[in-house]
Amino acid sequence: MKTSTSIAVIGTGMIASALAVLTTGHGHPTAVFARSDASEERFRNTYEGHFRQFLEHGLVTEEQIGICRSYLSVARGYDEMTDAEIVFECVAEDAEVKHGVYRLIGEHCPKVRAICSVSSSIVPERLAEGAGKYADRIIVTHPFNPAHIVPYYELCRGPQTADGVLEFAKEFLESMGRKPVVLKKPTPGFIGNRLQFALWRECLALVEEGICDPRDIDTALNYSFCPRYSSIGIFEHFDNGGLALNRAGCANIFPVISDRKDVPPVIDELIAEGKTGQKAGQGFYDWRGVDMDAYTERVNAPYWKFCEWELPEEPFTASGT
Q: Which of 134, 161, 170, 304 fits a 20 to 30 Å CA distance from 278?
């Protein structure tokens, strides 16, 4: 029987729910902290919805969902998570809020070996500043959504992080089929978002310069180079093409690529018009009447191939795991 690790998840939002699916789906007893009945209900609905999608794709059975669910508990207090060895902190992107969580973990969770923040923008050194007792156990483990089916995680330690903490978290993620990378030093946006926003900046520049429309850019991404990078890497691609040819491309294209350092006007203009995106019904696109279930299926489609999990075979029992 494989060894299980006791997990705590602080938060009930999108990432927290996905992480609970991931950990219980791999047979790790997981306590999720919910502040209210309403937040618990939202969490449970999202948790069950994720497993429903697995069922629809033939990745689990009803019986297996029940077994995975047995590894889940919902806590109202930190004193209900005293066995936690790894804590995934999934609260608001506010350092002071996170510091309060870390201090409570320090007071109530004596077995903690790693506190894994899913922060997308706050570096570990800042996270550790007001963390108290467990400042040396804090790292960033930044996932991409949906965090239970996208295998990529970005790990980063701070100067206060004790030796072995990051390595322990990395091995744990790898045991669940994740593909973590370790940053040599922290940077805002880490790797994935720096790449994504570099591309986004150029997409916005192409629109603002009147070269093309948003739909043209999305067509280019869907049907040109993006599919390639799901099976090979960009450094592989340009190595294969030859660096002399690549150098010529750099010399010709780099001078016209946007180097904007502020928010592009088109973003502020749309926000001022109330066109703030899908929830408002309009953004760059008109979302009114769009089948969001079908859209979500398109979002998830490339990642189902990564979901061949080694599901737990027996329900969780507190006496032995």
A: 304
Beta bridge partners, 156, equal 140
Distances in whole angstroms, Cα of residue 192 to Cα of each of 155, 157, 295: 12, 17, 22
Region 192-304: CATH code? 1.10.1040.10
Closest C-alpha to 151, from 311, 308, 313: 308
198-250 confidence digits (pLDDT tens): 999 999 999 999 999 999 999 999 999 999 999 999 999 999 999 999 999 99
Query: In terms of pTM, does the model score above 0.70?
Result: yes
How is the chain split into domains, by residue range?
7-190, 192-304
What does each C-alpha distance from 176 to 116, 150, 153, 305 come to in angstroms?
A: 16, 12, 12, 14
What pLDDT digit, counting tens, does each position of 97-150 carry? 999 999 999 999 999 999 999 998 898 999 999 899 999 999 999 999 999 999
Distance CA 84, CA 216 (A): 49
CATH 3.30.1330.200 applies to domain 7-190: no
Nearest-angstrom CA–CA distance, 202 and 182: 27
How many whole angstroms separate alpha carbon 1 and alpha carbon 159? Answer: 37
In the sheet with 30-33, reading across from the earlier edge strand, the strands are: 72-75, 30-33, 7-10, 86-89, 114-117, 138-143, 152-157, 179-182
Tokens of 154: 């970005």
Per-residue pLDDT tens over the stretch 12-62: 999 999 999 999 999 999 999 999 999 999 999 999 999 999 999 999 999
